Amino acid sequence: MFTRRSAVVALGIGIAGAAIIADARAAPSYDDPDDLYQALRDQPAERIVLPGGEIALVFADGAPGLDRDRVRAWVREGADAVTRYFGRFPVKHYGLLVIAGDGDAVGHATTFGYAGSATRIYVGRSADRVAFARDWVLTHEMLHAALPDLPRRALWLQEGNATYVEPIARAQAGYLSASEVWRQSLAGMQKGEPEPNDGGMDGTRSWARLYWGGATFWLQAEIDIARASAGRHSLQDAMRAINRQSGGNSADWTPEQLMAAGDAATGTEALSRLYTRFASERATTDLGALFARLGVVERGGWVMFDDTAPLAELRRKLTRPRAG
Ligand SMILES: [Zn+2]
User: Fold this and answer.
1) C-alpha span between 133 and 121 (Å, rounded)
2) End-to-end CA distance of the chain
3) How far does the centroid of ligand 1 lie from the alpha carbon of residue 311, in Å?
4) Which residues have beta carbons under 5 A from ligand 1 (an ion)?
5) pLDDT of residue 324
6) How many angstroms separate the alpha carbon of residue 136 from the centre of ligand 1?
7) Which of 126, 144, 247, 317 could form an S-S bond across to 111 if both were Cys, CB 3.0 to 4.6 Å?
8) Distance from the CA of 157 to the center of ligand 1, in angstroms?
9) Helix or strand run (H / E) with residue 260
10) Could you please report the per-residue DSSP string of 4-54?
11) CB-based contacts of 227: which residues, under 8 Å, 6+ apart?
């Protein structure tokens, strides 16, 4: 405790213009999530008030070297994307600890819920406007905060959900083009298909399956919900209901509970059925056929759209920018 406070003071002297002593060894690393929560409690926070909730933005130890205005604009953009997707900011109170690091990009991030919704994210001091505009990580983490926490075996549902929804939420908010959404899905989802010896998704540890195999599940869920409800409902309706009922990632749910809440919102059994299949069996997806039905075609590295495809309207609706 004492050591940590001393380190913060030392950084303060650095910012004041004496010798630059703001090096990573002096600052706490925040690897331990308890340190993240403590920083959110003890360090100065800027409040960003949004419809439905607020963000407490903390620049860890002052985050020397970071362009704060640029960071604030980027946080607002991510918050705007998830607020539009959910119809309101998905958690009442969200703590965001921004840690300055080396490099010119937004770095890795982790989201926790056991002591309140909170994310720790590393941002390179040399990150420019383009790096922030290109960033998907912050929106991905805010989406984690929106869903209840699940047992470890279902990590693929959480990572898959954030991977699937993030580009769609950004496209609906006007921050990402439809062709970029589908280019990423085409390239990514094929990496998530099961290997010959793989079983069901529950308990999987493979990175590609957790993120992209999980994303394929949610895209399939999107299509199944549209079909089962004759186009009246979408996954977004299910997501909003799950978020409203859980209040976000401070709640602990089972996957079965999550599927049931989503299905109740759409008047279908689409999620529960699909979950049973993906969780326990080696479920493969004919991605070529799936993208063809959506009217997403790749030619020479470019994504082309076929508006005569059977699910073309669903595809257009998903990524169409929406009014505020
Ligand atoms: Zn994630």
Assistant:
1) 16
2) 45
3) 28
4) 159, 162
5) 66
6) 11
7) 144
8) 10
9) helix 255-266
10) HHHHHHHHHHHHTTSS----TTTS----SHHHHHHHHHHS--EEEEETTEE
11) 270
pTM here is: 0.91
Rounded to the nearest angstrom, the distance between the alpha carbon of 158 and the centre of ligand 1 is: 7
Residues in CB range of 145: below 8 A, 6 or more apart: 90, 91, 94, 111, 113, 117, 119, 248, 249
Q: Which residue has the tokens 């602990």?
A: 252
Q: How far is the CA of 143 from the centre of ligand 1 (A)?
A: 8
Find the 162 Cα to ligand 1 centroid distance in Å.
Answer: 6
Q: Are 30 and 4 in contact (CB under 8 A)?
A: no
Q: In whole angstroms, what is the distance from residue 157 CA to residue 227 CA?
A: 21
Q: What are 170-174's contacts with CB under 8 Å, separation 24+? A: 170/81, 170/136, 170/139, 171/318, 171/319, 171/320, 171/321, 172/81, 172/84, 172/85, 172/318, 172/319, 172/320, 172/321, 172/322, 173/77, 173/80, 173/81, 173/84, 173/85, 173/321, 173/322, 174/321
Q: Count the residues in the chain.
A: 324
How far is the centre of ligand 1, averaged over its atoms, from the C-alpha of 254 (Å)? 18
- Tell me how many degrees the CA angle 50-56-61 measures, rounded to the nearest 5: 150
CA of 31 from ligand 1 middle (Å) equals 16
Helix (H) or strand (E) holding 155: helix 155-172
Confidence of residue 300 (pLDDT cuts 50, 70, 90): confident
24 has pLDDT over 50:
no
Residues 118, 97: contact at Cβ < 8 Å?
A: yes
Q: Which residues contact 79 (CB under 8 A, 6 or more apart)?
A: 48, 50, 55, 89, 142
* Integer angstrom CA distances of residue 178 from 54, 185, 267, 303, 305: 29, 11, 28, 10, 10
- Tracing tokens 């600052």 back to the chain, one arrives at 27
Give the C-alpha distances (Å, rounded to integers) separating 284 from 13, 118, 194, 270. Answer: 57, 34, 7, 17
